[in-house]
Design goal:
single chain; alpha+beta; 26 helices; 35% helix
Length: 965
């Protein structure tokens, strides 16, 4: 073939590939906006044995009457109280008459005469008293019984809004995100499903005669004016409402066009719903090529069922109006985001309870009602529009998959009971005979999951990754039902696929939507273009490219040149840094007249910067080992020289100060402190007849029962991939401290692990892995979720992860203090070691007094509370801040029962000292452990060998720093 011909073939091939690519992209985009087929609501398929849910409750009372009577129960006319802190107040927050103030714990009950028995909705007139900034939680009971499981936790919103009416800017021209503050008002709320499965408020059955209504406080205080039994009126359809417009003679408004910037929302249900900056398109308003502009709201923060945003607007004349929204839903391909929309606190018509927003990567303008816009009758004056996240048609789909996950996890545990975690690949366990109904259960669940997948495909018009997970599970269930002899060999993939279903639930429950603006306009109005032109996009990209060289994106907020100042480095994310800078600008700088140059830097930059003489005055989030290591080299400042040090140190437990104490000085203040707690699955322990262990002997007793069911107890263990910077193992430190041992002796000049106590503790620790075969590597959170590890010891921040990432086991688990060791006097020691991060002053700080003022302000109670609450508001419950300040932790939004458990364990926490060469302790403790577990060495000999290395390194470092040996 000639060269010319070869070139021609090449060019033809390239053009073909490019054409194919363009076609693929185009078809993908088209598919993303596929036609939606109108199909009926899906009916949830759930466990028929679950008779404690709202669905079963309604079936039980399906024939009950729904009386039209309204019955009011005045809050001050309570019948009984359990607990302290209740109070009666006249004219509370502008209320006419009396209200009863209820604290965050205790029970209040009322007697009510019901003449007409039947099903009633219940609403409450309440005021959210200032607390810990989280939603108010109550349990509702009738005649001392909770009517159904969902009534065990009912949520009542707090109202939030921007602190400032106008968006402020820093001295570099960037918009500052407005801080969210609570805006409490008296409000009426119906008792309804906070998970989003039911559109209508709950119905409760009340018998005839005197009934007792009780509310038990679970979290946060609230004032109650009255409780009312009533009937929720039926919402009309749009056709019925339209006919009403015609009958009333309502006419379309003319010449009206109102734009509501979405970021100007007046109220929100959560502080996470703060305005955002979007630079994805030059068509977003307001817009700047290089500067940060706050111009949208929602996004990934506005995704959980029940979250709402409200805007206020004013119309100049009565009439019929249309509503439009400029929005972007670029997260849920293959699913749709749903919102319920209320005007002036009511649904205008039935269709507004479920408004869909389909997937599209671009900004687009949606008119409510589509090609035939819905018309809304508005009177002249002010109105409100509220949009709330709703599961809508997805609710029964999620409910079905949740039921399937629980059922499949139960089947998985039954199979494990026979096969163990490591089944013999050559053995037929005859599981279909040994587990009655196994094959039928597989087929039933495959059918349920297939029905969900089919509904999603029909309703969205495409097959996406959201459906692929479901099809994979269905395929495996059908194959295991067809070939039961292969079940044991498929266990690992089965577990992964069930875990995938759990992730699917999390993903689909989240319904993010970003808004740029809302439009209220006359029906004949022409709407503005939503997308940017090609020329605008090119200009935007070129401008952003130039700005990347001219703008300083590392400094957070305003930067000052004159006067006293402190340079502070922070290594967390930009969101956390912006919260911090907001607090600095609000309170620290105005109160002290000291400006702060806050810089966001990579984690490993501190050491080279200090060596080069370019380090900060103060470093935040310093690792536990850094302050003492810097102090040895005269690079960290001794804080005990400040006259008020003892007063500041009293904010923390002694255990948090221990790691920063060296040679008579203290070289940092603790920011965060975490420690282990015992987590357990209440449902599974009850199933196998076990209670949470109080002592280590109880642990030994339960291990055999768990292993009999092929379940495991978890102890924390670090990965062996890189043990150069390992801290001493949490389980070993726990056993060591509980038995009276310590890590160092002779004024921290030698390792104390050669004591008889340490040797015995090390032997006991390794025996968990040699004799009892505990796993050397495990994903505790996931195995806890599936039930393979129904109990274990883990850092208390695991609580945050489980709360957010495992909704299917909500209410089925708890945590408490770790097992204890019995002392000679018969009491139990529950001691554990903690892990901390610190705020450290560098010795070369130009103004040490100013740096100390910043450190005092940063670690004080009010600052830590504000930071913790804003951080949780910003990033959700998963980011609950583990502050080291004793008083601050109490004020963070923990449920009172859970905080009491934390407080009990915190009293037993001890710190591990940091000494010269101490980094060898964790490293060689792990080496000794691996020698015993992997190479079957004698525990005493293995530890003794590595203690020699520890002592040699300590002696070497003490000599290097001219310390006494």
């Amino acid at each position: 073939m000639s060269v010319r011909r070869q070139k021609l073939v090449k060019w033809i091939f390239i053009i073909f590939v490019l054409g194919l690519s363009v076609w693929a992209i185009y078809s993908s985009k088209e598919k993303g906006n596929g036609d939606v087929q109108a199909i009926g609501d899906f009916v949830a398929v759930t466990d028929s044995d679950a008779n404690d849910g709202y669905g079963a409750y309604m079936k039980r009372y399906s024939n009950a009457d729904r009386p039209a009577a309204e019955i009011r129960i005045e809050g001050e006319q309570y019948a009984s109280l359990e607990g302290d802190g209740f109070d009666l107040v006249d004219g509370f927050q502008g209320l006419e008459g009396q209200a009863v103030l209820t604290p965050e714990s205790g029970t209040i009950s009322w007697k009510v005469q019901v003449d007409q028995p039947g099903l009633y909705n219940v609403r409450i007139h309440y005021f959210p008293i200032e607390g810990k900034s989280s939603a108010i939680e109550r349990e509702f009971a009738i005649n001392q019984e909770v009517p159904f499981k969902d009534a065990e936790i009912l949520l009542f919103d707090r109202y939030w809004g921007n602190r400032e009416n106008e968006i402020k800017r820093d001295n570099r021209g960037n918009d500052l995100r407005p801080r969210q503050i609570e805006k409490p008002i008296w409000q009426i709320a119906s008792l309804e499903d906070n998970e989003g499965y039911y559109d209508e408020p709950y119905l409760f059955y009340f018998g005839e005669g005197i009934q007792t209504v009780s509310m038990t406080s679970l979290r946060e205080p609230m004032a109650i004016d009255y409780i009312e039994l009533y009937q929720e009126p039926k919402t009309k359809t749009y056709e019925e409402r339209k006919a009403g417009y015609e009958a009333e003679g309502a006419e379309a408004a003319e010449g009206q066009f109102i734009v509501i910037q979405a970021e100007d929302a007046t109220l929100k249900s959560s502080p996470t719903l703060y305005p955002l900056s979007d630079r994805s398109s030059p068509a977003v308003t307001p817009y700047s090529t290089s500067k940060v502009r706050v111009n949208t709201i929602g996004g990934l923060n506005w995704k959980l069922p029940g979250q709402w945003i409200e805007w206020e607007f004013e119309v100049e004349e009565d009439g019929l109006y249309q509503f439009a929204l400029k929005r972007k839903q670029d997260q849920l391909r293959g699913v749709y985001a749903t919102r319920s929309i209320m005007i002036d606190g009511k649904y205008p018509f039935q269709e507004m309870k479920r408004t869909r927003f389909s997937f599209n990567m671009e900004w687009q303008t949606d008119v409510l009602g589509g090609d035939e816009p819905y018309l809304f009758h508005l009177t002249k004056g002010k109105h409100t529009i509220r949009m709330a996240v709703s599961l809508g048609e997805l609710a029964p789909l999620i409910e079905t998959i949740e039921s399937s996950v629980l059922e499949l996890n139960e089947l998985y545990r039954k199979i494990l009971l026979i096969t163990s975690n490591t089944p013999d690949p050559n053995r037929d366990y005859q599981l279909e005979k040994r587990i009655p109904g196994l094959i039928d259960a597989f087929r039933e669940q495959a059918g349920n999951i297939q029905a969900v997948a089919d509904y999603l495909e029909q309703s969205t018009g495409e097959r996406s990754d959201k459906v692929a997970v479901l099809h994979t599970m269905v395929r495996q269930l059908n194959e295991m039902a067809e070939k039961p002899e292969t079940i044991a060999n498929r266990l690992k993939t089965f577990k992964v696929n069930v875990g995938g279903l759990g992730t699917w639930i999390l993903t689909v429950r989240e319904q993010p939507l970003t808004l740029d603006y809302l439009i209220v306009a006359s029906p004949d109005s022409k709407l503005p273009r939503a997308k940017a032109t090609m020329l605008e996009k090119i200009k935007h990209e070129l401008g952003a490219y130039v700005a990347s060289y001219t703008e300083d994106y590392d400094s957070i907020g305003s930067t000052e040149d004159g006067g006293r100042s402190v340079t502070v480095w922070v290594t967390t994310g930009r969101d956390q840094a912006q919260v911090m800078k907001g607090l600095i600008d609000d309170t620290f700088t105005p109160d002290t007249n000291i400006s702060v140059n806050l810089r966001l830097v990579p984690g490993g930059i501190l050491l080279p910067a200090v060596l080069a003489g370019e380090g900060p005055d103060v470093a935040l989030q310093a690792g536990e080992d850094l302050p003492v290591n810097y102090a040895m080299r005269n690079a960290a400042a001794d804080l005990t020289v400040f006259p008020d040090f003892e007063e500041v140190a009293a904010r923390f437990r002694g255990s948090a100060i221990t790691p920063y104490t060296y040679d008579g000085g203290v070289y940092a203040l603790p920011e965060q402190q975490t420690f282990p707690m015992l987590f357990y699955r209440k449902d599974i322990l009850k199933e196998v007849g076990l209670e949470p262990p109080k002592t280590w002997q109880d642990v030994y007793n339960m291990i055999s029962v768990l292993q009999k069911h092929n379940m495991e107890f978890y102890l924390p263990i670090e990965s062996a991939t890189n043990n150069a910077t390992l801290v001493p193992n949490a389980a070993f430190a726990m056993l060591l401290y509980q038995n009276g041992g310590q890590f160092y002796r002779d004024n921290d000049m030698k390792s104390a692990l050669d004591s008889e106590i340490s040797m015995q503790v090390f032997k006991r620790w390794t025996q968990f892995y040699t004799n009892y075969k505990f796993p050397l590597q495990a994903d505790f959170a996931n195995r806890f979720r599936t039930g393979e590890m129904p109990i274990g010891i883990a850092d208390y921040t695991t609580y945050n992860m489980l709360t957010v990432m495992a909704p299917e086991i909500k209410g089925l688990w708890d945590f408490t203090i770790v097992p204890g060791t019995e002392r000679e006097d018969g009491s139990l020691s529950h001691e554990v070691a903690s892990h901390t991060t610190a705020v450290m002053m560098l010795d070369n700080a130009d103004d040490k007094d100013a740096a100390w003022s910043f450190m005092k302000w940063w670690t004080e109670k009010d600052t830590q509370i504000d930071y913790g609450r804003e951080l949780e508001g910003l990033l959700g419950e998963a980011a609950r801040y583990p502050t080291a300040n004793i008083e601050a932790l109490e004020q963070l939004p923990w449920p009172i029962k859970d905080f009491n458990n934390l407080e009990r364990q915190w009293q037993w926490v001890r710190g591990i000292p940091q000494v010269p060469g101490g980094y060898f302790t964790g490293r060689h403790l792990d080496n000794a452990f691996r020698s015993v577990v992997n190479q079957s060495e004698n525990p005493r000999e293995a530890l003794s060998d590595y203690i020699l290395y520890m002592n040699d390194e300590i002696a070497l470092k003490r000599k290097e720093f001219n310390l006494q040996n």
